[in-house]
Amino acid sequence: MLYKELIHFGNPRSQVGIITLWTICDIITKKIDPKLFHSAGQLYTKNGINYLVRNLLANKNIRYIVICGQDRAGAGQDLKKLWKNKDSVILDKEIKKSSLKNLITNVKLINLIGEENPEVIAKEIIKLDQNLKSYGPGEIFPAGKNKDLNELECSWPSDNSIYKAKGDTIAITWLKTLKNVIKFGDIKTTDAMKIKEICNLCAVISSEDPDNFYIPKWLPIDKKKIENYLPQILDGKKIPGLHYTYGERLQKHFKINQVEKIIERLKKDKNAREAIGVLFDPKVDFSAEHRPCIVLVQALRNHGALNFTAFVRSHDIFGGWPLNAFGLRKLQKIIADSSGIKMGSLTIISGSAHIYDFNWQAALDIIKANLCPGFENDPYGFFRIETDKKTQTIIISHYSPEGNFLKKYSEKINSKNAVKNLVKKIDEDLAVSLVIHGLYLGIELTKAEACLKLGINYIQDKPLIIKSPGKSTI
């Protein structure tokens, strides 16, 4: 059985399996007589359906699947669609279609999505006829495509402090957050599940249009899902079936509408530093079974724009981050428009940024298919490199992104470690923010030094061609 360590087992003779979706399995099963069910587990996202189907086909004595709990990621609806359509593109190709059809024909879904009351769930199970025969011998199918163990089962070394992902849009920034967690995540087990986790992931979205979100086809959520989610952040009303919403926490939970207060404060003082909304309630959340993940937001005007920052204590980067980001960007626009300040960037700081192991491969596939390498403009500016043959000097001029002169650096090549000294000066001034920009500077400065030593002209961004005695290009 796959992920056996994450499954709660009851009566081996029972023909009932329980799926609790996003609701913690223990909360429901600890108050249900274990004699009533064979096994129970959670189903966070549609990617877990593969493992569920494989386990069901391996044990054809199970004839019922009770779906209950909160369906935040829509996995319950995806499971219902699978049973209705008898096919799905999310399933591994190794699972035979004839076997899937046999499964769906013989295993009945009991739809209790949204229900978390163990007594109600138990009553529905008691009604079921558990004297049915097995519908065939168990089937085991080959595993899907091989995982890249170097990326999925390992954690690359890092400074383990702050990780940064920046992009124009939410979708592109999301790809970069996934890559950070997959590459550098510490592998650990929490809540009986395996995760890769990094601390303090800082994601910055600079240009997303909240009135026209960029939603590429490869993003696992569509416009409708985003629109259905937005009320959880923007509306102060409680939503049936949810223990809390971010909108309710911001607007009603503390008997004060914090969004209105933030707007009022910014109208009075555009440079206010106390335009903050708090969502974590220490009186109840330290012991609550369900507590908010987004715990604080702050609106702060900087460089003439309203920047918005959210701190998230625990963040499912694959399953939860995109919807959170779209909702926060929309909230930022409401505050900016109401305050009369143009929008700036959205920053999401994830204290625990993690991806569950059943999403590792999907995350890696999305990264490799859609995160295209490219040269980015350094927000710290650019450099013009020149050489003076007469004085044997390398001259570097630093400019802002807008083209304003900032500082000049120079070094004679007859001095020891000329290039190294220049690089050290630039680094001391914190003049470069992108690794690729630093690598580029190293290449160009080495080339400039070679040109001076060879007595040939140096042209920035042009290859160095040495014609004598042989011909070579650098």
General description of the model:
The protein is an alpha/beta fold and 474 residues long. It has 3 domains: 4-126, 3-Layer(aba) Sandwich (Rossmann fold); 149-370, Thymidylate Synthase, Chain A (2-Layer Sandwich), CATH 3.30.572; 382-473. Helices cover 33% and strands 23% of the residues. It is built from 15 helices and 17 strands. The strands form 4 sheets. Strands 6, 7, 8, 9, 10, 11 and 12 form a 7-stranded mixed β-sheet that branches. It has a 5-stranded mixed β-sheet with strand order 1-3-2-4-5, with helices on both faces. Strands 13-14-15 form a 3-stranded antiparallel β-sheet. β14 and β15 form a beta hairpin. α11 (258-268) packs across α12 (321-339).
By CATH reckoning, the class of the largest domain would read Alpha Beta
Report the oligomer.
single chain
Q: Assign the CATH architecture of the largest domain.
A: 2-Layer Sandwich
* Strand residue percentage: 15-25%
Topology:
Blueprint: E1 8-9, E2 16-19, H1 25-29, E3 39-41, H2 49-58, E4 64-69, H3 75-85, H4 97-106, E5 108-113, H5 118-126, H6 149-152, E6 163-167, H7 170-184, E7 186-190, E8 193-205, H8 223-229, H9 231-234, H10 246-253, H11 258-268, E9 276-278, E10 294-302, E11 305-316, H12 321-339, E12 343-356, H13 360-370, E13 382-388, E14 393-399, E15 405-412, H14 418-428, H15 435-454, E16 465-466, E17 472-473
